[in-house]
Amino acid sequence: MANEGGVGIIATVALSLASDHYRKAKDYFKANIKALADELAWAREISPQGIIGVNCMVAIRDFEEMVRTSVEHGAQMIISGAGLPLRLPEFAAADPKTALVPIVSSVRAAALIAKRWLRTYRRIPEAIVFEDPNKAGGHLGASRHQLYDPEFDADRVVPELAEWARKEYGDEIPIIWAGGVWDRGDIDHALSMGAKGVQMASRFICTHECDAADSFKQAFIDAKSSDVVIVDSPAGLPGRALKTKFIEKLFRGVEVESKCVATCLMECRCRDADETFCIAYALHKAQQGDMEDGLLFTGSNAVRHTHMQHVWQIFEELTGQPSPSRLVAQRG
Length: 332
Ligand SMILES: Cc1cc2nc3c(=O)[nH]c(=O)nc-3n(C[C@H](O)[C@H](O)[C@H](O)COP(=O)(O)O)c2cc1C
Prior knowledge:
The chain contains 13 helices and 11 strands.
């Protein structure tokens, strides 16, 4: 992603579970710090010039450590949602050049964050991501009954956010549209509504470069639109996911693996009330290719996948420009 002129983002949830650091010492939080440092070093090695960022969720117990580790190891951007990242500038203070980008689902949340940051830290967000709960994948910033409420629709909120940024901050906070962006037409639409960029996840799942197992990617190629479902996450939020055997078991009330492996969430229905399932375990299992016990997060239109592609091919399609990494490779 970073090699093609995009921003490559590393996710931090359950990052360490696949690492030797966790296998050796079984200390999830210490291992997460080491695994994130490794990921950042590896990302920099494969993309020496690209922009590399980290997604740190507020609802995670090691949010502060993940932010501090990211900054210490050279992340150029921190994207942060699943709660209001009110103290993010404090945790990222070691390098004021690191771009700080909250994820919101309303103008109210954006205004609260920007005001608090300005008053407390004398800075404003470098950008704000609006994540459309009707279309985005993973944890969604709205309750189940609000999911298809037009009030949270990107077509409504992005222009409002752009207007708010222009009025309050003289256009200094670019708004990024996330959720449901698949092709160039979607990008043009987002830009026409006042966004300055887009955040995309689902489109890149069936790429050779995506580090999930082949069976994870194949599940998307095989999926039908009725397979995109909403599950109740242990974090107390709805999540959009692909229907797999794991989800079928959940819906039928069949017992699924619910032993808390990481104590990763601040508030967790699995750990604290013995309900739902262990999210770290379920996401990790999916990434490893276990379709029985794995949870596959997805955006609303990820079932449009029909075949595997390279990231550079998607970028060429989206930008209409030759990929910089392909040109370098061809020159030898
Ligand atoms: C497989 C998958 C994993 C995701 N993991 C995270 C995550 O760790 N943190 C986060 O803030 N958002 C996460 N998201 C949400 C995306 O960052 C993004 O905002 C959203 O899915 C964009 O919509 P799209 O998938 O339609 O492109 C995830 C989405 C998917 C599909």
